[in-house]
Design brief:
four-stranded mixed beta sheet; 7 helices; binds zinc ion
C-alpha cells in the first residue's frame, strides 16, 4: 500500500514538473519568442487542415510539401506517414524551438535567414552534394541537433 502511494505521488510530481516546464516553454515562446511564434501562427492557420499534435510543449503540424520548419511555438514537419525520418525531423525541429527560446527575436536574424539560404540556395545544395557535406554540419542545424538530443534524448537526422 505504502509503495503504491509513493509511486503515485512520484508520478504526480513528474506530471506537475512536466506541466510547469511546458507552461514556461509556452509562455516564453509567446513573449520572448513572439516574433517567430506569430509567423508560425500564420503558417499554422494556412496549414489548419493538416493533423496537429502536442509535441513536448510545442504544436506540431504534419504536412506535405516541406522537410521541416520551426517558428517559435509551432513546428511543421513532413508527413510521410509518421515514419522514422519524420519523427527524427520533428525532434530536430524541436531543437530549433529551443534556439527560439534562447535567442528570442534574434532567432529571426541569426537562424531563419541563414538556414533558409543553406537549405534552399542551389549554390549550397551543389556545394553539399559535390563535397559530400552533411546538411546538419551548418551551425544552425548542428546546434538544433545538439539541443534536441539534450532536451529530448531522442535520435535526430544527421
Ligand atoms: Zn533545421
Amino acid at each position: 500500500m505504502k509503495i503504491s502511494n509513493s509511486a503515485s505521488s512520484a508520478n504526480k510530481f513528474t506530471k506537475l514538473l512536466k506541466f510547469i516546464s511546458y507552461s514556461v516553454y509556452i509562455i516564453l515562446q509567446c513573449t520572448w519568442g513572439i516574433v517567430q511564434t506569430l509567423a508560425g501562427f500564420v503558417y499554422f492557420l494556412i496549414s489548419v487542415r493538416y493533423p496537429h499534435e502536442f509535441y513536448h510543449g510545442a504544436i506540431l503540424t504534419r504536412r506535405k510539401g516541406i522537410g521541416g520548419v520551426s517558428l517559435g511555438l509551432f513546428i511543421f514537419a513532413n508527413d510521410n506517414n509518421r515514419n522514422n525520418f519524420s519523427d527524427k525531423t520533428a525532434a530536430h525541429e524541436f531543437g530549433h524551438t529551443i534556439q527560439s527560446l534562447l535567442l528570442g527575436p534574434l532567432y529571426m536574424i541569426f537562424i531563419v535567414p541563414e538556414s533558409m539560404l543553406w537549405c534552399g540556395l542551389p549554390f549550397f545544395q551543389k556545394l553539399r552534394k559535390d563535397n559530400n557535406i552533411s546538411y546538419y554540419s551548418f551551425y544552425t542545424e548542428a546546434w538544433a541537433n545538439k539541443l534536441a538530443k539534450k532536451f529530448l534524448h531522442e535520435e535526430v537526422t544527421e
